[in-house]
TrEMBL record:
Keywords: Coiled coil, Membrane, Signal, TPR repeat, Transmembrane, Transmembrane helix. The keyword Membrane applies. Pfam families: TPR_7. PANTHER family: RAPSYN-RELATED. Residues 1-20 form the signal peptide. SUPFAM superfamilies: C-terminal effector domain of the bipartite response regulators (SSF46894), TPR-like (SSF48452). This is Tetratricopeptide repeat-containing protein. It comes from Pedobacter xixiisoli. TPR repeats lie at residues 203-236. The chain crosses the membrane at residues 402-419. One of its GO terms (biological process) is regulation of DNA-templated transcription.
Length: 583
C-alpha cells in the first residue's frame, strides 16, 4: 500500500518524540532514586529540564507515562518525587491546580515522614509554601527553613526564596520587625548563591524591607533600602521597562519618607514622577500609593480641594488593584478632607467606607495569623495521626483516633469561628463608640464657641457703656456734641465678618436643622435677617442684639417687625416663639 512521504515523516517524528520521552522517564527515575544529601541537587536538575525543554502538552504526556510506572512499581520515594514533579510542572506553566494536586502534596508530606527523610520533607514543605497549601504560606516557609538549617543550607539552591516568602507573609500580617529580620537573612544569600537568584526576588525583598521600615516610622532606614533598589536596577541584568518602573517606585517611596520627615518641597517632585511612571505602566497599586501621598501633602498644606481630588483618584486605583491598605488610607483622607469643609453627608459616607475597609483589613490580618495557627495544628495533628497509625494494632483503635481528631478539629473550628465573630463585634462596637464620641465632641466644641460668643458680646457691650460714660464726662468738660458721639458709638460693630463666619459654622454644628428650615419657609431671607433670626433663637434681648449688630434698639424692633410680617406666624404667635419652634 502506498504511503506519502509526509505520513512517513510524521510516524518517524512521533517515534522519535516517544523515544525521547521514554529516555527522560528513565533519566528522571534514576535521579529521583537518590537517597543521600545530593538528592535535592539531582531533583533540581530534572526540574531544570522541565523548565527549559518542556511545554504543557509534553508535561501532560510524560505525566501519563510516570503514572503508568506507578501502577507497576510501588516505590514510595519515587511516588513522592513523581507527584512533586507533576505539581511543580503545573506551577511552571501556570496551570490551575486541582484538589487532586493538593492531595498529592499531602501524600508526599506523609511519605517523607514515613521515610524519616527530613531533606525530602524540607523540599515538599517549600512546595507546599509556594502553592499556599492549606493556607499555610508562612508556616510551610518556616518549616522548610527549619529543616534546611538543620541539614545545611548548602544542600539547597533556593533558600533565599523561603526567607523572602516568610518576610512577605509577615509583612501582610503587620509583623514588620519580623518581616525585616527574615528579609535581611534573604539578602544575605545574594553573594553565596547568586547563580540561583531570580533578579526580581532581590528587588521585591528590598521593597518589602523598605515598606516595613516606613510602617515602623524609620524613614532613614527605608530611604537606604529604596536607594539600593535604584542602584540594583541600574545594572545590565534589568531591562529598560523594569529599570524605569522600579526607579519610579523607589523614588516615590523616598519622596514619601521625605514628606514624613517634613521635607515637602523635596518630596513632591519624586512622588509626581512615581505617579507618572505608575500610570504609564498601569500599575494601579502604585498609582494609589502616589495619589495617597499627594493627598497627604495637600492636607498638610490645607488645600482641601486638591486633597479631595488626590484621595478620590487613590481610592479608584486601590479598588482596581484590590489593595486594602491603600483603600483604608484613601477613605481616611477623603473623610479628613470633607471634615475641614463641613460637608456632613460626605464625611459620614467616607467614614462608613473607612470603617468597612478597616474592619476588612483587621479580618484579613487576623485570618492570616489564624490561618498559620490552623495550619500548624493540622501539621501537628498529622504527626499525631502518623504516630497513632504506626502504633495501632486494630481497626477499632484507628476508628477511635479518627473520631477524636474529628472532634478536636471541629471544636477548634467552632472556637476560631467564635473568636472571629467576637472580634468583628468588638470592632463594630468600638467604631460606634468612636463615632458617637466624635460627634459629641464636635457639638460640645460648637456649644462652647457659641457661649464664648455671647460672653464676648456682653463684655463688648460693657465696654461701650464704659466708653459712653467716659465720653459723657468729656462732653461736660469739653463742650462736645453728645448726640454726634452717641451716633458714632452706635455705629461701632461688635462682630467682624470673620467672627460671623465662625459663628455661623458653630451655630450650624449645634443646630444643623435651623438654617435649612428657615430658608425653606423664607427662601428670600437676607444675610442680615439670617443673623437677626440666629440671635433671636439664642434668646438674646433687643439690647444685646443691637449691641451685637451695631444698630440701635429701635432698629432691632423695626427689623423684627419686618421679619415677622414675612414669616407664616399664627395669629397669637410671637416672632420669638415661632423661631424657637423651628428646631
Amino acid at each position: 500500500m502506498f504511503r506519502s512521504p509526509f505520513f512517513i515523516i510524521l510516524i518517524l517524528l512521533f517515534c522519535n518524540l516517544s523515544f525521547a520521552q521514554k529516555a527522560d522517564v528513565v533519566r528522571f527515575l534514576k535521579a529521583w532514586s537518590c537517597k543521600d544529601k545530593t538528592q535535592t541537587q539531582k531533583a533540581e536538575e530534572t526540574y531544570l529540564v522541565l523548565k527549559k525543554e518542556y511545554n504543557p502538552n509534553k508535561l501532560e504526556a510524560i505525566s501519563k507515562d510516570l503514572d503508568s510506572y506507578l501502577d507497576r512499581d510501588k516505590d514510595h520515594r519515587l511516588k513522592a518525587r513523581i507527584y512533586m514533579f507533576q505539581v511543580l510542572g503545573k506551577r511552571e506553566f501556570s496551570l490551575i491546580l486541582t484538589k487532586q494536586d493538593t492531595l498529592k502534596v499531602a501524600q508526599v508530606i506523609k511519605i517523607a515522614r514515613n521515610l524519616k527523610d527530613d531533606q525530602l520533607l524540607a523540599e515538599v514543605y517549600a512546595l507546599a509554601a509556594d502553592i499556599d497549601f492549606q493556607g499555610g504560606y508562612l508556616l510551610y516557609n518556616l518549616k522548610a527553613l527549619e529543616l534546611q538549617r538543620k541539614i545545611g543550607f548548602g544542600y539547597f539552591s533556593f533558600v533565599q526564596n523561603r526567607f523572602f516568602g516568610a518576610s512577605i507573609a509577615l509583612y501582610r500580617t503587620h509583623d514588620f520587625k519580623e518581616s525585616i529580620e527574615y528579609g535581611k537573612q534573604c539578602l544575605a544569600f545574594r553573594n553565596m548563591k547568586s547563580q540561583n537568584w531570580d533578579p526580581m526576588v532581590y528587588i521585591f525583598q528590598l521593597d518589602v524591607i523598605g515598606a516595613s521600615y516606613i510602617a515602623l516610622g524609620k524613614y532613614e532606614d527605608a530611604i537606604d533600602y529604596y536607594k539600593q533598589i535604584i542602584d540594583t536596577v541600574s545594572s545590565k541584568a534589568y531591562n529598560g521597562e523594569t529599570k524605569e518602573l522600579w526607579k519610579g517606585i523607589a523614588n516615590g517611596n523616598i519622596g514619601r519618607c521625605l514628606f514624613y520627615q517634613g521635607e515637602i518641597q523635596q518630596a513632591l517632585p519624586l512622588i509626581d514622577a512615581h505617579l507618572a511612571i505608575a500610570l504609564k505602566y498601569e500599575q494601579w497599586n502604585n498609582v494609589a500609593i502616589a495619589e495617597n501621598s499627594k493627598g497627604e501633602i495637600f492636607l498638610k498644606q490645607r488645600d482641601f480641594l486638591q486633597a479631595y481630588s488626590s484621595f478620590k483618584k487613590a481610592l479608584s486605583a486601590a479598588i482596581r488593584s484590590d489593595r486594602l491598605e491603600d483603600k483604608v488610607k484613601a477613605a481616611e483622607g477623603l473623610m479628613k478632607s470633607f471634615a475641614n469643609t463641613g460637608n456632613t453627608d460626605s464625611i459620614l459616607y467616607y467614614q462608613k467606607a473607612h470603617s468597612g475597609y478597616l474592619l476588612k483589613q483587621a479580618e484579613v490580618v487576623n485570618n492570616g495569623k489564624l490561618s498559620s495557627m490552623n495550619s500548624k495544628m493540622l501539621f501537628d495533628n498529622g504527626q499525631r495521626d502518623l504516630e497513632n497509625a504506626n502504633a495501632s494494632v486494630s481497626k477499632l483503635k484507628q476508628t477511635r483516633n479518627i473520631i477524636i481528631i474529628g472532634i478536636v478539629i471541629f471544636a477548634v473550628f467552632l472556637l476560631l469561628l467564635y473568636n472571629r465573630q467576637a472580634l468583628k463585634n468588638k470592632l463594630e462596637k468600638q467604631q460606634i463608640i468612636f463615632e458617637a464620641l466624635q460627634a459629641k465632641a464636635e457639638v460640645d466644641k460648637a456649644k462652647n464657641s457659641l457661649q464664648q460668643f455671647r460672653n464676648q458680646m456682653v463684655e463688648k457691650d460693657q465696654l461701650i457703656v464704659n466708653l459712653r460714660q467716659s465720653l459723657q464726662k468729656s462732653v461736660l468738660e469739653n463742650n462736645l456734641d453728645e448726640a454726634q458721639i452717641g451716633k458714632k458709638l452706635l455705629a461701632y460693630v461688635l462682630v467682624t465678618d470673620e467672627e460671623w463666619v465662625k459663628f455661623k459654622d458653630d451655630f450650624n454644628k449645634v443646630y444643623p436643622l435651623f438654617y435649612p428650615r428657615i430658608n425653606a419657609v423664607l427662601p428670600s431671607l437676607s444675610s442680615a435677617e439670617e443673623r437677626l433670626a440666629s440671635l433671636i433663637f439664642l434668646q438674646m434681648n433687643n439690647k444685646e442684639i443691637a449691641s451685637t449688630l451695631g444698630i440701635g434698639v429701635d432698629s432691632v424692633a423695626r427689623s423684627k417687625r419686618r421679619l415677622k410680617q414675612k414669616l407664616p406666624l399664627l395669629e397669637e404667635q410671637s416672632l420669638e416663639s415661632y423661631i424657637l419652634s423651628l428646631v
